[in-house]
């Protein structure tokens, strides 16, 4: 027998309306954290004329896990000159506990950030300074990626230094539902009161949960009011493209352009929703390069009029 302590976790919801063009250029929205997963929900017609998948899963977007790397290897002059100063690399310590010390991040702005305890800092002959809390917000630095760098050169560098590496490729999954329930939301007057309905609808379809009682394996037990909100506006075909990998602002912009083309071509698409999920234990740009274990999830809701709603949840 198991005992569970159950607590209702309340989150603050931030909903902001922006134009499509402003959203594409807003790095404070699209570049908050290293991205692990992208979901794009396309309700309406069974569209097949998509071009974004090939770009997102292209060989240019491979990424690497370098095993058992040392801090000393990251402060060597050749590594800093080749990959850090030019702003051609983004990385963070994978599966590390960010609430502990000894956390490392390479930012796309060309900065190398080291959070080290006193003993390790002294062994590396690095002067350790306390983390200063910034009282004033600094002007955001623009990304300065050098896109012509070959990703394989990063792996080759570490392999020549004697480290084992694992090459990872972006993965794409497509889920098609020919008769899916639609959420009861008003895309023209969207606000925080409708966030729960939209987020629950997206979560149900991501997890493959059914609202139909005859599907006993995946049936989700809900109160009648919740089921009504999730399916009271009828049913439509639904296509969900899922991308997993190590992404950044460039891949999100590809999905935004894809959404714009689809909405302009297909008048019967009621909206397109994009979910951006970051690596849990990674840095967060919007907090002056602080590291946080907060939810790293941003949802974009795009209407046929190209009005965009940005949804952020936080504890």
TrEMBL record:
One cellular-component annotation, GO: multimeric ribonuclease P complex
Example GO BP: endonucleolytic cleavage in ITS1 to separate SSU-rRNA from 5.8S rRNA and LSU-rRNA from tricistronic rRNA transcript (SSU-rRNA, 5.8S rRNA, LSU-rRNA)
Coiled-coil blocks: none
Gene Ontology terms for molecular function: ribonuclease MRP activity; ribonuclease P activity
InterPro entries according to UniProt: RNase_P_Rpp40
Pfam families per record: Ribonuc_P_40
Protein name: Uncharacterized protein
Species: Larinioides sclopetarius
